[in-house]
């Protein structure tokens, strides 16, 4: 492992922390800054009514704006904190990487839901960004406050595949 490899891994871990903090605090611009222009973010392993896929920064921005405008009404939580744990980063080249990161989300009820991120990352202008994030749900509490959140932040115009 080279110093450049270590710097890339640390930059990717910093990116994941910035994504998490921006998402939990609904800081849309900071959240968008974590993605490539053509990024995809999507859910997997959830019931059909909670599946989502947003392609491109415009679609991701619109989704986050809907989430922010719904406020606590999106999920009923007064706070949300995603905690990242194990993260395995595989460097595929100087500008490409993959990562698997485990997370647990805490809300007013305590541990609310958990899963892992499967990421494809790309270095753009010297900065590591998320090119494709698959969010997999592994577990949720019986009283999870997030069960209605995706539906409450859905795009009512039917498509979220904007670029």
Describe it.
Helices cover 28% and strands 41% of the residues. The protein is an alpha+beta fold. It has one domain: Nuclear Transport Factor 2, Chain: A (Roll), CATH 3.10.450.50. A hairpin with a 2-residue loop joins strand 5 (110-124) and strand 6 (127-140). The protein starts with a helix and ends in an 11-residue tail after the last helix. Pfam families: SnoaL_4 (PF13577). This is SnoaL-like domain-containing protein.
Please outline what is shown here.
This is SnoaL-like domain-containing protein. The protein is an alpha+beta fold and 163 residues long.
What summary fits the major beta sheet? 6 strands, mixed
Number of strands: 6
Count of helix runs: 4
Sum up the overall morphology in one term: globular
List low-confidence stretches: 157-163
Write down the overall mean pLDDT.
Answer: 90
Rg over alpha carbons = 16 Å
Q: What is the total number of structural domains?
A: 1
Strand residue content:
35-45%
Just name the CATH architecture. Answer: Roll
Q: Please give the alpha-carbon distance between the first and last residues.
A: 37 Å
Spatially, the strands of the biggest sheet line up as 2-1-6-5-4-3
The first-level CATH class name: Alpha Beta
Keywords, separated by commas or semicolons:
163 residues, alpha+beta, Nuclear Transport Factor 2, Chain: A, 28% helix, 41% strand, globular, disordered C terminus
């Amino acid at each position: 492992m080279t110093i450049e490899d270590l710097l890339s891994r640390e930059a990717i871990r910093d990116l994941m922390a910035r994504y998490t903090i921006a998402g939990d605090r609904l800081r849309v611009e900071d959240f968008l800054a974590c993605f490539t222009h053509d990024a995809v973010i999507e859910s997997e392993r959830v019931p059909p009514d909670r599946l989502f896929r947003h392609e491109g920064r415009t679609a991701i921005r619109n989704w986050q704006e809907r989430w922010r405008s719904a406020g606590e009404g999106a999920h009923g939580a007064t706070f949300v904190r995603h905690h990242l744990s194990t993260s395995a980063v595989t460097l595929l080249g100087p500008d490409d990487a993959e990562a698997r990161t485990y997370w647990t989300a805490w809300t007013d009820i305590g541990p609310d839901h958990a899963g892992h991120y499967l990421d494809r990352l790309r270095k753009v202008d010297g900065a590591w960004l998320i090119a494709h994030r698959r969010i997999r749900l592994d577990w949720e509490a019986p009283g999870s406050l997030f069960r209605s959140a995706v539906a409450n932040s859905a795009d009512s115009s039917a498509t979220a595949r904007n670029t």
